[in-house]
Amino acid sequence: MKNGWTYFVLAATVLVYVVYIAMAVWTFYNLPPIPERVVTKSGELLFTAQDIIEGKTLAQKYGLLDYGSFLGFGGYFGIDYTAYTMKFFVDKIGQLKGTALASEIKHLMTPQFSAKTSSLFAPAAGVAVVSDEFGAAYKQAVDFYKQLFGPKAEEIGLKPNLITDPEHVRKIVSFFTWGVMIAMANYTNGFPYMPGILTPNIHVTVATWVTFFILLLVIMPLAGWIIIKFIDYWKEPRITVDLPPPSKEQRLALLGFVLAVLGLSIQGLLGGYLMHKYTEPSTLYGISGINNVLPFNVARALHYNLALLWIAVSWVSFALFVLPYLGVKLSKGKVLAILGAGAFTALGILLGVWSSYLQLLPDPLWFIIGSQGRPVISQGTLWLLLIAALLSYLSVTVWRASKTSPEPIQPLVKILSIALAGTAFGAFMGALPVVTPWWHFTIDEYFRWIIIHSFVEGFWPAIVIPILLILLVIAGMVPPKMAVAAAGLDATLEIVTGMIGTAHHYYWGGQPTLWMYVGAVMSTLEVLPIGFLIAYAVVLWKRGEYKTELQKTLLTFVLVAAFGGAIGVVAFGAGLINMPVVNYYLHGSQATMVHAHLAMPMAYGVPTMLMWTVAFALAGAFGAVQLRRLRMAVVIMAVGFYLQVTLSLMLLMTNQFVTTTQVGYWASKAIFAPDGTPAFWSRQDIQMYVWLRMIGDVVAAVGIGTFLIYMLRGLPKVFKT
């Protein structure tokens, strides 16, 4: 079956990477300067470019960015090192000068760079001159962080005495101080906010207005065109495909699903553990010593890696289960080899993160087989290369399957293959430069967010939607031509807007200001295809053409995923934190948790759980009773996540917003102020809101536990011949 949508999807995939490679050249020649030397006006040398570069590497090695954040990028609990260091400098300079006048302190805080930019091929550029008061504050900051990362580390949720080498601390503080310097010199569009010292520039407001204008300009004609196509295709004939019982080789693939549901269960437990650490950073219900084994940064990295891994393992397993139905011959040995490679990679990632952040791996192994220390992309580079290789192999295999699959779904299979290839290339880019971290923070963030979006906003929708539509076509619920059009349009728009929309993470990281306009517009347009898919799911429900238990199960899961995606992606993503004027105050806050805790489990988790359910049903392990109970379980799980958000995360988000606007960004992420007084996370009302999340956690756990129980019970039936 020839269809032009596959060419559009392929063209979109090539286009986005060409755009990013081209824009990288411009971006990497306009980097915030890393001065060869930072000196005071009296001529004293404070630190060098090499100190800044090595400080960044050390911050990654010690896992500091999976605890706190730098320019808002990193963990959501620990301090933002840039904003907190800025607050420290403001206080100390004010004390040294005996003034509280913001304008005078701001003048003494602002450095003078002799070179305006650094470039990819010239890391160090010029000299930076700072006030003598700034230099004195820097020395005191080094002493402060020696205590924070040393004797006080366990108190704030890190491994006890995490950093004991004073030279390492000095270099890390040099990196933090460089962040303050480029922020004060207006390389970060006025971020982080500190009243009287640093405020948003005009582009933050203008980019938001431009985004609304273009959204309104695009949405009406696109909606009209889609409605016309919707009507054209709706009366097309549908088909029903009766699939034979799976072979022994296909049944082996279901082992991957059991590993996945175990991974999801452990991920949920770690999520609860992390929220408990917000209220009790140094112990666990009074039990001391827990941070020797599972400090906050380790638990956080394991938590989000498990989210990525159980979904990825499920998709690989489902591909192995489905490919024989599409005409691909798989031997028992090949199935076990692929599952084994996936399990080996997943286990390697988890053990690598744990051992790396606990400082059990030497240089440079911590970066290659341990953890890169980059938030979300914390996997060692070796594991990312293995993931890229596995995805590439699956892409080729699925493309071959498109030639032997039933003709009506061939375009859907091809779109799936292209999306897998796009994700594989993103994983490869995330492994660069393979043996050592990028020397410049802005370069690192440029590549880090490309791989994150290739995994989530860009290519994952182009993987999930074709799979769901193939299932709906086979079940006789959707005309094949409509399915192909929906998958093609969604994949094309998601890849273009989702990948180029990566730039909404480039607002405050030192990238050129143009990226703010590109990111705000493209990432907001990303919601359009999601919105149309939600509308389609509602129409599917209203038509009432679902009779069998499998059809009812498909529809229930699709509706839960659609509405969860609408709230998590559309409302709290594009509608809230994408907008620069809002993101400025909520960047790296619990607002991102609100977005992620609805978008990730609903838009990607629920369709993945549907794959488990369909495979076990086809293998004879789930009958009508089990399908009815699992439909109820997925709804209960969704309710749990909604309760998390409404009872806890939204309250934390709004309080952080108020704190930032009134006191400054530093205050919204701190346990205590630099002078030792209690700050945001020490407040009694905030502690109560954190504990309220337990209600949603328990409800979601009931839903997830139901899947775990039924899949473990059903596994023996799977292997009965």
Keywords:
mainly alpha, 2 domains, 6 strands, 721 residues, Cytochrome Bc1 Complex, Chain D, domain 2, two-stranded antiparallel sheet, Cytochrome C Oxidase, Chain A
Task: Walk me through this protein's architecture.
The chain has 721 residues and is mainly alpha-helical. The protein folds into 2 domains: 34-199, Cytochrome Bc1 Complex, Chain D, domain 2; 244-435 and 448-472 and 546-718, Cytochrome c oxidase-like, subunit I domain (Cytochrome C Oxidase, Chain A, Up-down Bundle), CATH 1.20.210. It is 67% helix and 2% strand. The protein has a 4-stranded mixed sheet with strand order 2-1-6-5.
Please write out the topology.
Layout (H helix, E strand, L loop, with lengths): L4 H24 L8 E4 L4 E4 H13 L7 E2 L2 E2 L6 H17 L4 H8 L2 E2 L13 E4 L1 H17 L17 H19 L17 H33 L13 H5 L1 H26 L16 H27 L9 H26 L7 H6 L10 H24 L5 H22 L9 H15 L4 H15 L5 H21 L13 H12 L1 H17 L5 H29 L2 H7 L3 H29 L5 H39 L21 H35 L3
Helix pairs in contact: 1-14, 1-17, 2-6, 3-4, 3-5, 3-6, 5-6, 7-18, 9-10, 9-24, 10-11, 10-22, 11-13, 13-14, 14-15, 14-16, 14-17, 16-17, 17-18, 17-19, 19-20, 20-22, 20-23, 22-23, 23-24
